[in-house]
TrEMBL record:
<dbReference type="InterPro" id="IPR037523">
    <property type="entry name" value="VOC_core"/>
</dbReference>
<feature type="domain" description="VOC">
    <location>
        <begin position="1"/>
        <end position="127"/>
    </location>
</feature>
<protein>
    <submittedName>
        <fullName>VOC family protein</fullName>
    </submittedName>
</protein>
<dbReference type="InterPro" id="IPR004360">
    <property type="entry name" value="Glyas_Fos-R_dOase_dom"/>
</dbReference>
<dbReference type="Pfam" id="PF00903">
    <property type="entry name" value="Glyoxalase"/>
</dbReference>
<dbReference type="InterPro" id="IPR029068">
    <property type="entry name" value="Glyas_Bleomycin-R_OHBP_Dase"/>
</dbReference>
Amino acid sequence: MKIVVTSIFVQDQDKALEFYTEKLGFVKKEDVPVGEFRWLTLVSPDDLDGTEILLEPNDNPAAKEYQKKIFTDGIPATMFGVEDIYKEYKGLIAKGVRFTMEPTEMGEVTIAVFDDTCGNLIQIMQK
């Protein structure tokens, strides 16, 4: 068994698609109409057949409440690994990404957290 798709709740699929592709560099893999929403997935450009991120609408009241609560509590919705966190941090700052935590060493890992503008905090990590 392996992880093939993981979801991130978003407030607006179009806005999320723009942020995750233009700011973060992910590549759109699937874009299929499903009622009023879409099955909209992204992959890393370094692993086109890897785990997909589903930009899932937070239309369900439970999803909205969950997303709002973890954001308010400062809990990242997910984590992405990076090779050089300081380089990634500087590059994302240059693209206008707003960080809530600068790169911070935590034992054997260094983490940073940013706002994805779609209702989530996202953590990046370098081992």
